Amino acid sequence: MIELSTIDSTNIYAMAQIKEGLAKSGSCFRADFQTQGKGQHGRVWESVTGQNLLCTYILEIKQLDSDKNWVPEHQIGFSAAIALGIRSFFDTMTNGDTKIKRPNDIYWRDRKAGGILIENIVRGSEWTWAVVGIGININQTQFSTDAPNPVSLKQITGRDWDIRLLQEALTKSLNTSLEDWQNNGDEKTMQAFDQHIIEISK
Ligand code: BTN
């Protein structure tokens, strides 16, 4: 766990560490504030300083299983496993009602509580690294007007949360979910993912 106060983006930082050969698989970079937080589709991910979970995990894929042929086709099962791990984490904190909106937004009822931005590195036909950026609304209660129907853990539960403790719980939940994916495979993971989908057009 590497904690950063202000950074452009934990995903940009993690990617640079990999490119420079400095990255250690399993590391996680957590920031209090990002000046260029990246969302999906080139959007900006905004967050008030110190109030939310902003982090990026990096994984060297062959370290999961060095005998397996890690073709990029496995990314879909991996992405589903990450979404399932975050969903389960958030669901525990909120006592239910946490859903996934395709491809991998985390929703509580019909409101967005978190997002995931996975950037993969592929060399030739081999999937080598995954850079898993996660933003979850925790203690923030006021959002910019263009945020799509946001909600935070504090708004749901009525209390403040310790970001570091939540980060530890998130890591555990992701580990469990990735183990399930490795044991059960892509197809079963996608089936589990399908059971938590919310269909909304926002
Ligand atoms: C989305 O648009 O829903 C995905 C948002 C992902 C945001 C997180 S915050 C931590 C990490 N660093 C980034 O720059 N983006 C991801």
Give an overview in words.
It contains 4 helices and 7 strands; from the N terminus they run βαββαββββαα. It is globular. A hairpin with a 2-residue loop joins strand 6 (111-123) and strand 7 (126-136). The chain has helices at 10-19, 75-94, 153-157, 163-194; strands at residues 2-7, 28-34, 53-60, 98-101, 105-108, 111-123, 126-136. The relative contact order is 0.18. Strands 1-2-3-7-6-5-4 form a 7-stranded mixed β-sheet, with helices on both faces. The longest helix is centred in the last third of the chain and has 32 residues, at 163-194. With 202 residues, it is an alpha+beta fold. Helix 2 (75-94) crosses helix 4. Residues 9-11, 34, 37-40, 43, 45, 54-56, 105, 115-117, 133-135 line the site of biotin.
